[in-house]
Design brief:
6-stranded parallel β-sheet; 3-stranded antiparallel β-sheet; 14 strands; 15% strand
Length: 389
Amino acid sequence: MKKGKGMQGPLSGITILDMSRVLAGPFCTMVLSELGARVIKAEIPPAGDDSRQFGPFVEGKSAYFMSLNRGKESICIDLKEPGERKLFEKLLAGSDVLVENFRPGTLAKLGYDWESLHAAYPRLVYAALSGFGHTGPKSDMPAYDLVIQAMGGIMSITGYPGNPPTRVGSSMGDITAGLFTSTGICAALRHREISGQGMMIDVSMLDCQVAILENAIARYAAEGISPGPLGARHPSITPFDVYATGDGYMVICAGNQNLFAKLCRTLGRDELIKDKRFANNDLRTSNQAALKQEMESTLRSQGNAHWLDLLGQKGIPCGPINNLEGVLNDPQVNARNMLVEALDPTAGKVRMAGNPIKMSCFEDPPERRPAPDLDQSRQDILDLLRKKA
């Protein structure tokens, strides 16, 4: 099946049959679409992807849905109908990758288990993304992002000591799973290029949360103690935290001895360099509260703008704590084309996050194709299938 109109990229010519919905799967296939793949979104009638009903809405259309499904095509398929099953199988025959995020066993009950798919379509890559994966005692449990953040440990190290457990503000459970799945798909396509064979990719949201615990796992493995929340500061690098200034807060990260000395001199606090409590990183971390108090006694004498400019000139890593308005107006974000637009026929211009993967061989245009209406692409897809028959 040839690629339809859309982005050009290293995956141009690859067709993804996307049966996923809401966030993890659609985020995965959005990344693949941004890299040039054609994504055919197979939705269950009559309502399609659940996220079509999630706010906020622009002219009756979900901004949430539009941001995750730009540039894709939509066709409704009811796998309980014999005629629709034949259509689905034609789509499978013309696709390189099948992506789904149903609960394990859902497609198998409909006759589309991995063994059957591989026998019928040996070059097909089948990516199954679920809460707990297709093996293990919890594989049939349902999951949402909050459940995964809770069970995966990230909530136990997020927030401030003594406060209730806190969810990470972005849906890390879904997004990390989507990113890992897109990586697995690219690797599977490379393997197919060598071997001629497709494979099944089984990605668990819980597994992905465990995979990104990095420093927390290292600390537990070394000390045998479960880390707790530390607020904004780093558990093993100091100074590396949020600091109060005369008119707000900013972040400062002096991650080595040279940066710490440069920071102290820039603040006019040379004596801190020779202070035995702060002689090396381990001591600074052990005495982080005292160091923070010393730093803030100086930082409070001027506002954010003063310190950001002064520390920035000296090459000391620092930054403002932007709200979303600040992020979207940041000249660096805009210079990197990280805000793109899609012209939707109903909602008008819709702004959304751009593609962070910049490639020398492919353009990164400021416009994207809009997300499809439900079943919008049906006739075009059927016409293409007839031509191939």
